[in-house]
Amino acid sequence: MEFVTGGAYNGKGKWARDMWLNHNKEHTWMDMKSQEVHMPDTDQLVVENIEFMARETEEGWSWLKPLLLWESQAPQRRLLLIGTDITRGIVPLEKSDREWRDRTGFLYQRIMEEAAHAYVVWFGIAEQLK
Predict the structure, then answer these.
(1) Per-residue pLDDT, 90
(2) pLDDT value of residue 59
(3) Does residue 79 sit in helix, strand or coil?
């Protein structure tokens, strides 16, 4: 599993399409703003806007376990998670937004522990963190 984070509209998706996807293979792209997690029928899976998974539940990690299992079942499978960094900047006024921000930070820490590689993308430029 690999992880990409960075600011909103800073080029994470474009970087994934240009640099990470193996263009001679089909891929599945899931947007967690608008759909639920499902097992792909391709060997490359990109899951973006994962911060929304932390908004929906206190246990923002359980949705990822089946995807990690899916990836581990075949050596050619690749999983990329893309999450917007909402943990910086001004602290939100609403308690629910502060809790979402905190849960997202905890989720990203767990993902970083599991990730083989991690990148931050700012203004279209990726820097490898891990």
Answers:
(1) 87
(2) 66
(3) strand
Would you say 42 and 71 are in contact if contact means Cβ atoms under 8 Å apart? no
| Residue ranges in the chain whose pLDDT is less than 50 | none
| Paired sense of beta strands 117-122 and 125-128, if any | antiparallel
Tens-digit pLDDT profile for residues 28-44: 999 988 877 778 888 99
Per-residue confidence (pLDDT) for residue 30, from 0 to 100:
92
Residue 1 one-letter amino acid: M
> In 24-63, which positions are buried (b, 16+ CB within 10 angstroms) versus exposed (e)?
eeebebbebeeeebeebeebbbbbbbbbbbbbeeeebbeb
DSSP 30: E
Sign of the Cα torsion 71, 114, 23, 34 reads: positive
Sheet-wide strand order for 117-122: 27-31, 44-48, 78-84, 2-6, 117-122, 125-128
Q: What is the predicted pLDDT for the residue at 57? A: 67
**Residue 45's closest CA among 80, 4, 5, 1?**
80
